[in-house]
């Protein structure tokens, strides 16, 4: 995926505020909106849990004030893991945790990360995409296990 591309559609899963399992198309959530889609290699992993997700939660108000209507956290984990992980972030009101259980959406983006040698299988590269009415306007994709360009500060600079 790169700047100028239309973000692909896919069906991802999440638990709503009533703890009901839902499936939703990415396009149905972000069509005609400005959105941030960010992905992490795995729920409950150190950088993801201590830096990446907390940064987007803490800066969500600023992102919203600059016109971002949806903030989506995507990971190649099942929806039950994503639900449990989301509940560890007290005070989160704006970041939705979406499960790409089989990694099909990640594959459609071309952002797979092979962590088989670490016992984690195929996961997602860490990234942050700014999307405006389904068109990618910013594509901050990390190399390897880095966390240098995909945080909320980088998205805020682009807004």
Which SSEs are present, and which pair or pack?
Layout: E1 11-15, E2 21-25, H1 26-30, E3 34-40, H2 46-58, H3 60-65, E4 70-75, H4 79-86, E5 95-99, H5 104-109, E6 112-114, E7 122-124, E8 127-132, E9 135-141, H6 152-158
Parallel strand pairs: 3-4, 4-5
Antiparallel strand pairs: 1-2, 3-8, 6-7, 8-9
GO molecular function: thioredoxin peroxidase activity
Keywords: Antioxidant, Oxidoreductase, Peroxidase, Redox-active center
Organism: Genlisea aurea
Estimate percent helicity.
Answer: 25-40%
Number of DSSP strands?
Answer: 9
User: Main sheet, how many strands, which sense, barrel?
Assistant: 5 strands, mixed
The fourth-level CATH homologous superfamily is Glutaredoxin
Query: What percentage of amino acids are in beta strands?
Result: 25-35%
Per the CATH scheme, the topology name is Glutaredoxin
Count of discrete structural domains: 1
Average pLDDT rating? 96
User: Spatial order of the strands in the main sheet?
Assistant: 5-4-3-8-9
CATH architecture, by name, is 3-Layer(aba) Sandwich
Catalogue the unreliable spans.
none
The gross shape turns out to be: globular
Instruction: Specify the structural class.
Output: alpha/beta
Q: N-to-C SSE series?
A: EEHEHHEHEHEEEEH
What's the CATH class, please?
Alpha Beta
């Amino acid at each position: 995926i790169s700047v100028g591309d239309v973000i692909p559609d896919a069906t991802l899963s999440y638990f709503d505020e009533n703890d009901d399992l839902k499936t939703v198309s990415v396009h149905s959530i972000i069509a005609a909106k400005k959105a941030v889609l960010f992905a992490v290699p795995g729920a409950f992993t150190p950088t993801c849990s201590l830096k990446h997700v907390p940064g987007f939660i803490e800066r969500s108000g600023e992102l919203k004030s600059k016109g971002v209507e949806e903030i989506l956290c995507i990971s190649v984990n099942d929806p039950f893991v994503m639900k449990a992980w989301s509940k560890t972030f007290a005070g989160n009101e704006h970041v939705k945790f979406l499960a790409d259980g089989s990694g099909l959406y990640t594959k459609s983006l071309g952002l797979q990360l092979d962590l088989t040698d670490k016992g984690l299988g195929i996961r997602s590269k860490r990234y942050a995409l700014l999307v405006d009415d389904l068109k990618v306007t910013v594509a901050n994709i990390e190399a390897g296990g880095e966390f240098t360009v995909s945080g909320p500060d980088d998205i805020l600079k682009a807004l």
